[in-house]
Amino acid sequence: NAGVTQTPKFRILKIGQSMTLQCAQDMNHNYMYWYRQDPGMGLKLIYYSVGAGITDKGEVPNGYNVSRSTTEDFPLRLELAAPSQTSVYFCASSLQGYGDYTFGSGTRLTVV
Amino acid sequence: GESVGLHLPTLSVQEGDNSIINCAYSNSASDYFIWYKQESGKGPQFIIDIRSNMDKRQGQRVTVLLNKTVKHLSLQIAATQPGDSAVYFCADLYNNNDMRFGAGTRLTVKP
Fold it and tell me: Which of A77, B6, B35, B45 is the most core-located residue (most Cβ within 10 A)?
């Protein structure tokens, strides 16, 4: 039981490049989330999903896209990377959709 | 907009002492609150939660207190240990599926 697995752990992108942050969970959780964490700040919700085929915007969705074709996977797509997207990205999943979140170990992204 | 926030960005305590980390929230409609612990290089880890129909909840060495009148909650850690050194976040459920996190308090435990 691996929990929530995020890849890659680190990435440097050039402005305008695209990439996909991968997130997978093996706990059969319906709820999945993407957060970003800027230095000295709390986590901000980018997108979430309440089940396969269903996604919705969070507090800071601009510049990102998600898909949820399976229960296990919830990739986050950056289409045109900007320096403002430099951050640490966390994926989380939840059984109940409340605070019982299990977080991945994060992806540290730098856009230069 | 509505927000949660912690009172102090850093807290230093002596090993064995009790720690108290405070948090204020602004959304009077929030009915569920959570404390998370984040160690360096890791994702946040759930510690304890409390619903708005309670004013106190205890876990193993941790207690959360909720004061709805002044929109304040606190996390108390008993007999703080070096392994408790981390950043602690409070969060409230802003609406269904939207947890709002505070900026965090970095707890340092001195031996």
Answer: B35
Q: What is the pLDDT of residue A112?
A: 97
A80-84, B22-26, B29-33 — most confident range: A80-84
Rounded CA-CA distance B66/A23 in Å is 34
Q: What is the pLDDT of residues A63-106, one digit of tens each?
A: 999 999 999 999 999 999 999 999 999 999 999 887 789 999 99
Number of A:B CB contacts under 8 A?
Answer: 63
Cβ contacts (< 8 Å) between A95 and chain B: which residues? none
Chain B residue numbers touching A90 (CB-CB < 8 A): 43-44
| Residue tagged 């990439």 (tokens) | A19
